[in-house]
Amino acid sequence: MKLKLDLHEMYNRGAEIDRALQEVINEAVRIRAKTVEIIPGKGSGALKKHVLRFLERKDIKAMYHRVEKDSDNFGRVFVHFTWK
Length: 84
Hints:
Helices cover 39% and strands 21% of the residues. By secondary structure, it is of the alpha+beta class. The protein has a single domain (2-80), classed as Ribosomal Protein S8, Chain: A, domain 1.
C-alpha cells in the first residue's frame, strides 16, 4: 500500500506542514504501508528542504527505512518502509 501527501496548498504554513507530515508517517506505520509519496512541488525548493529536515529528525527517522528523492521529478520525495 502507498500513501500520498500533497503539500501544495500549505506551502507557507510550517506548523500545518509538520502536522500533516507527522500524520502521514504515523498512518504509514499504523497500516504498515510500503511507501509514502510526499509532493512538496518544485518551486524554490524551500518546502522540499523543510520536508527533508523533518524526515531527518531522530524520532521520525527511526520509523522508516530510507528516503528517495525522485530523479525524474524534483518535486517528489518517497519514504520507504520495511516491515518484518
